[in-house]
Amino acid sequence: MDWSELNTDLLRLIAKKLGDISNFVHFRVVCKHWRSAVPPSELPPQFPWFIDRVVNWRGGSSEIQFYSLYSNKTYTLHVPEADGKIPLGPSNKYLCLTDFSCMTSILINPCTRSKIRVPYQL
Questions:
Q1: Element at 51 (helix H, strand E)
Q2: Alpha-carbon distance 80 to 25, whole Å?
Q3: pLDDT at position 78, please?
Q4: Nearest to 96 by CA among 118, 63, 80
Q5: Per-residue exposure over 11-49, b if at least 16 CB sit within 10 Å of its own CB, e if not
Q6: Do residues 22 and 111 touch, judged by C-beta distance below 8 A?
Q7: Which end of the chain is more exposed for a tag (fewer CB within 10 A), N or C?
C-alpha cells in the first residue's frame, strides 16, 4: 500500500482526531498529498496550552515556550514579534502579545505569522 495515495476524505477524518498541533504539523509534512488534503486553516480543536516567554541574559527574547497538556511536552518556537512583549495567552489559533511600554497589542498566529492589531484602551 502506498500511504501517499490515501483517500482525501480519510486524511481529513484522521487530521480532525489529532489533539496536538505538533501532531498536526507532523501529519502535514508526510507528503505533498497529505499537506494539500488538510490546509492549516483546518486545524482541529486543541487541548489547552500553557505559554511562557524565554528570557535570555540580555533581558529580551523572541522565544516562546508552549507546554502541551495533551503530549506532556514543551516546545520552543522562535517568534520575532515577541521580543520585548509579554505573551498574555493563546486564543483561537492566535497568541496575544502586549507591549506595556507603548500600550500596544497584537494577535499573531505563530504558525502562519498572520497578525491582527488590537486597539488598546485603559
A1: strand 49-54
A2: 20
A3: 82
A4: 118
A5: beeebeebebbebbeebbeeeeebeebbeeeebbebeeb
A6: no
A7: C
Strand pairing category for 86-91 and 94-99: antiparallel
More confident residue, 62 or 36: 36
In the block, cell 506595556 appears at 100
Using the structure block, give the residue that is written with the C-alpha cell 496536538. 20
Contact 24, 15 (CB under 8 A): yes
pLDDT average, residue stretch 1-22: 87
C-alpha cell of residue 84: 520585548
